């Protein structure tokens, strides 16, 4: 077992730091939260924080990595929920609305982080882009299984609807936003079964 520090093992201290940072970063933003507050609320010393995270930037990257893993787990559960590709897409959409309707929802952690770290070359912005590329690729892959037509445009459409729902979900009625988003996803699925619409989508993806 790891040696003890601040009332627990080293691994426990790291978990406490990351959980504390995650809670505050998501609720209040990243730039507004200082290291002193994080170590105080996690009940560790600054030395312990820097033993696990070389800088605040490293702590933010760990926060986003944890968020990434949570979303990957939700998507994997959605994919395992049904053999039907259409229903897997619906399950992914429902996992998004579950988040929108959850207590303390404050939008997308990745979009929030990108707004605070706008430099495309910054490691935190790069982490956001990597997560979003994975999500786009995953959703596009699921949509590609619903029909034989190309799915790139449909995947982008899904992501745009998701982004809008995540932004609106913390400003307006979460239930109404969730219903609107789910209806939009149904529209994407339906459009992929209509020949003239799928042909137009294929042309748009190739242009």
Write structural notes for this entry.
- With about 210 residues, the chain is mainly alpha-helical.
- The chain contains 10 helices and 2 strands, in the order ββαααααααααα.
- The protein has helices at about 10-30, 35-40, 45-50, 55-80, 85-100, 110-115, 125-145, 150-170, 175-190, 195-205, and strands at about 5, 10.
- α1 packs across α4 and α4 crosses α5 (about 85-100).
- InterPro entries: Homeodomain-like_sf, HTH_TetR, Tet_transcr_reg_TetR-rel_C_sf.
Secondary structure elements and pairings:
Elements: E1 4-5, E2 8-9, H1 10-28, H2 35-42, H3 46-52, H4 56-80, H5 85-100, H6 109-116, H7 123-144, H8 152-168, H9 174-191, H10 195-206
Antiparallel strand pairs: 1-2
Helix pairs in contact: 1-2, 1-4, 4-5, 4-7, 5-9, 6-7, 7-8, 8-9
Domain HTH tetR-type: 11-71
DNA-binding region: 34-53
Keywords: DNA-binding, Transcription, Transcription regulation
What fraction of residues sit in β-strands? under 5%
Number of strands: 2
Shape: elongated
> Which CATH first-tier class of the largest domain would you pick?
Mainly Alpha
**SSE order in H/E notation?**
EEHHHHHHHHHH
Tally of helical runs: 10
Output the structural class: mainly alpha
| Widest beta sheet: strand line-up | 1-2
Low-confidence residue ranges: 1-8
- What name does CATH use for the topology of the largest domain? Tetracycline Repressor, domain 2
Q: Can you give the mean pLDDT?
A: 91
Q: State the end-to-end CA separation.
A: 58 Å
CATH-defined architecture of the largest domain? Orthogonal Bundle
CATH superfamily of the largest domain: Tetracycline Repressor, domain 2
Number of separate structural domains: 2
**Largest pleated sheet:** 2 strands, antiparallel
């Amino acid at each position: 077992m790891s040696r003890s520090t601040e009332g627990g093992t080293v691994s426990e201290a790291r978990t406490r730091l990351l959980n504390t940072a995650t809670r505050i970063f998501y609720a209040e933003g990243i730039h507004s939260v200082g290291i002193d507050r994080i170590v105080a609320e996690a009940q560790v010393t600054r030395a312990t924080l820097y033993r696990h995270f070389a800088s605040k930037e490293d702590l933010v990257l760990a926060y986003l990595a944890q968020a990434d893993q949570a979303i990957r787990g939700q998507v994997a559960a959605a994919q395992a929920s049904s053999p039907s590709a259409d229903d897997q897409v619906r399950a992914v959409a429902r996992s998004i609305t579950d988040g929108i309707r959850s207590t303390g929802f404050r939008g997308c952690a990745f979009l929030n982080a990108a707004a605070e770290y706008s430099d495309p070359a910054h490691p935190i912005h790069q982490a956001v882009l990597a997560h979003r590329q994975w999500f786009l690729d995953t959703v596009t892959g699921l949509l590609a299984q619903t029909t034989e037509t190309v799915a790139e445009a449909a995947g982008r459409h899904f992501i745009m609807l998701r982004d809008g729902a995540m932004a609106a979900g913390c400003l307006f009625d979460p239930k109404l936003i969730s219903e609107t988003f789910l209806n939009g996803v149904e529209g994407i699925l339906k459009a992929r079964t209509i020949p003239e619409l799928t042909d137009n989508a294929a042309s748009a993806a190739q242009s």
